[in-house]
Specification:
Blueprint (H helix, E strand, L loop, with lengths): L1 H13 L9 E4 L4 E7 L6 E7 L8 E8 L6 E9 L4 E12 L4 E9 L1 H7 L5 E5 L2 E5 L5 H17 L9 E2 L14 H5 L4 E9 L5 E8 L4 H14 L2 E2 L5 E9 L5
Antiparallel strand pairs: 1-2, 2-3, 3-4, 4-7, 5-6, 5-8, 6-7, 8-9, 10-13, 11-12, 11-14
Length: 255
């Protein structure tokens, strides 16, 4: 009887969480976001994704929010498995925060265009990120991914950017921003946040202009984003003036 009960509990824990809501598409002034809630109302898990707005990349940021009373920032490599059996190892960062009812852990998982293509053909996924793991019966992604593509194109145009006049970065723009670049004044204020900037590249590929379209709410982080883009950014261009979008999240690491 005890063994039977233990096996039943193990099977229940292994079963994917089922949706408790429909997909919600959020057309924000600074991003497009799709999300869906899973599990029970008392301790829900939210899965979503934010398509890349960098014009040269069809990837996305996968977003997971799940109950977790343990604090701290974690980084590493997560193994994500799709319903097809396809596995992908992706970089992630996670941190805890408190809402009105309980402590939560948020995950950001960087997914490339190849993964997003395979996600379009999937109906479930699981993720193993060190101490944390979960499985979700997501259902088909095709319609929600199409809605995200339309949203992203409209968002770029609202910022005055022609999606066809894109500047392609030489190298990974993420490498232009390091922990050592965190502004000291922002660090003293314990400030963090997400910055979205539009850069204009000249025919030689140098950044000649940078403007913030979505602020971190901290002037030092906004300024540093544009300063580093001007100093380190290099692009391949096909027009007199070409454009690129930078989305940078500044997060203070523990220690």
């Amino acid at each position: 009887m005890i063994i039977t009960t233990m096996l039943a509990l193990a099977a229940a824990q292994a079963a994917p969480m089922t949706p408790s809501s429909k997909w919600v598409v959020d057309y924000r002034p600074d991003m497009c976001l799709a999300s869906r809630t899973f599990g029970v109302a008392a301790a829900p898990t939210i899965f979503g994704f934010e398509p890349s707005i960098t014009m040269d990349d069809a990837g996305a940021m996968l977003l997971i929010v799940t109950p977790d009373p343990h604090g701290g920032v974690r980084t590493g490599r997560a193994t994500v498995t799709l319903s097809s059996g396809e596995k992908k190892t992706l970089d992630y960062v996670s941190w805890t925060f408190k809402n009105e009812s309980a402590a939560q852990r948020a995950f950001e998982v960087s997914a490339d265009s190849d993964f997003m293509t395979k996600l379009d053909q999937s109906t479930a996924l699981s993720m193993d990120a060190g101490k944390d793991s979960f499985a979700l019966a997501t259902g088909p992604f095709t319609k929600v991914l199409a809605a995200m593509k339309t949203c992203t194109d409209n968002l770029l145009r609202s910022w005055g950017v022609d999606p066809a006049a894109k500047a392609v970065p030489m190298g990974n723009p993420g490498g232009w921003f390091t922990d050592d670049d965190y502004p000291s004044e922002a660090r003293r204020r314990n400030a963090s946040g997400r910055v979205v900037a539009i850069v204009t590249a000249d025919p030689e590929g140098h950044v000649k202009a940078c403007r913030i379209v979505s602020s971190s709410k901290d002037p030092a982080l906004d300024q540093q984003t544009c300063d580093l883009a001007r100093r380190r950014g290099r692009y391949q261009t096909s027009a007199a003036d070409s454009f690129a979008v930078l989305g940078i999240r500044w997060v203070l690491r523990d220690g």
